[in-house]
Amino acid sequence: MSSSTLVSLPSMEPKDKNTPHLFDLNKLQREANIPTQFMWPKEDMVGTDGVFNEPLIDLEGFIKGDEIATGKAIELVRTACTNHGFFQVINHGVDADLIQAAYREIDAIFGMSFDKKLSFVQKPGTQVGFSSAHADRFSSSLPWKETVSFKHRGMNSESDVVDYFTSALGHDFENAGRVYQKYCEKMTELSLVIMELLALSLGVDRSYYRNFFEDGTSIMRCNYYPLCKNPGVTFGTGPHCDPNSITIVHQDQVGGLEILAGDKWLAVPPRQDAFAINIGDTFTAFSNGIYKSCIHRAMVNEERGRRSLVCFVGCKEDMVVRPPENLAVGSSRVYPDFTWSSLLDFTNNHRRTDVQNLENFFPWLLSSQSKVPA
């Protein structure tokens, strides 16, 4: 992998939590000169080399049990995940009207006053609430975006998202909570279908991975990337791998999602009928390193703001992450056992996510365990 393709992120450790500085991007978006905290080193601003054009994976036949369609889907997933960890699915069972309703609620949420957003700001060490460029955690190479994140407890919850919206944003946002409750439920359903497909593509029992995720907790995140008059110096999200298992992404018609395939950054054209699937670090470990964690980034747009809906699918936090026996014969384990909660703690509280999460995580984990009294 070319050294010019990947970035070496500065300010990797969390900033001093006693000196938070939050930016109102709605005020900054039309300024030609953006704050220096958002500027990335010039050598990191590697250009886009093409367009991602691999085949879409049609889930309809797989869901219905069609053997030919299932075989084709398995082959496409296996190829994608061993090469770069990214694929797109269509005929996924998520209604287009629900997706558009979720986008309408994004507009209402990010259209609120900055003071209102700060009333439910994300607290240090947590995963829910409003964040302005993650500036509460980091002091340089900030992403040009605002986010709102909330949890969904998989198949075991009936109203957790609604409850969050009414408690954090007020009863005026109860309908938004209902929209996202339904959306998260559909993401859970889709994630379990994807888990079955991944299992079959790896040659393990169809339900093997599904069993780890039916009662897991996922993080739903609404992203808003305001227009940026100086897009050549910053990212909407810098190059990184997701630490969770898989990520399900829907991007609006503006586009901006890019993946690293080989040594080239490829733009992923937006499709309203498709969801993008990123393999994350935890599933890389679940597959014993066979499937790659997707390196991806988000670009900003000079003319238009951009939105995306992102579901970070996670297993139970105390789940021990280890591959099935047939993927780790003898002593050929690529990664040692770990719990999802420990990796989550590492990326939430100790190090900024980048393209080497697992490589940096295990030395930290070993050091942390050695400090625990016997």
UniProtKB/TrEMBL annotation:
Residues 216-315 form the Fe2OG dioxygenase domain. Pfam families: 2OG-FeII_Oxy, DIOX_N. Belongs to the iron/ascorbate-dependent oxidoreductase family. GA20OX subfamily. It comes from the Eukaryota. SUPFAM superfamilies: Clavaminate synthase-like. Its cofactor is L-ascorbate. This is Gibberellin 20 oxidase 2. GO terms for molecular function: gibberellin 20-oxidase activity; metal ion binding.
